[in-house]
Amino acid sequence: MRYWHLDTIAYPGGCVMATYVLVHGGGHGGWCYQRVARLLRASGHEVYAPTLTGLGERSHLLNGDVDLHRHIEDVVAVLQYEDLKDVILVGHSYGGMVITGAADRAADRVGRLVYLDAATPRNGQSLVDVAGPIIEAVRPMGETVDGIELVLLPAPDAGLLYGVTEPADLAWMAERLAGHPWQCFSQPLDLTNETALWAIPQYHVICTSTLATRDRSLMERARTEGRLWDIDTGHDLMITEPQLTADALLEVADA
Description:
Helix content: 25-40%
Number of strands: 9
Radius of gyration: 17 Å
Number of helices: 10
Order of helices and strands: EHEHEHEHEEHEHHEHEHH
Strand order of the largest sheet: 2-1-3-4-8-9
Largest sheet: 6 strands, parallel
Distance between the termini: 12 Å
Shape: globular
Structural class: alpha/beta
């Protein structure tokens, strides 16, 4: 396995600063990582949590051209314009599609990939291919707005879909969730630099309840090699278990 070196900026106590880029999943925004980002920064690390076009505080930019490719471009732009290198690139849920595409296009800037209860696609696959029954189930509850098919629509209890049950968290999410363009989920991933992409070490932080739905051989290999953490919580583990999620991400930096 090939390992890339992280930045060698030391903090008191011997901690080495890592750079995390946290990519959210469908319907969310960078806001969902607030708690985890705070914990990582408190440990001396640099954290970016970009919001993908058409979602969160960028909802006003939603248009018919927003798709998986656009979201990959969003993340690559952060890596390039912030001049980030040896990044720990983290993707939650649909974000697994995005970070795979971003690492393919900017492999020289990515040191480690972390799939946070996320899709783990291969070339030519869409999220529908990877998680068909789950993602197809939400499509009938969507609607078309200004010619754009949107799914994962916000609602007072929408957080339940993501395994969130705490009333305060549900209310917090209800004010921030946004409808997600369906074409992001149906568009196939187009990889062009797979040799460099798959040389990047991959880690998996998953929810115990979703383990059975994952690629068994991939999960077994990751566990054997010490690259798998499972947390007994809902799908939005960065909201429901921020400390355990941050702890796992910190262990990735120390791996």
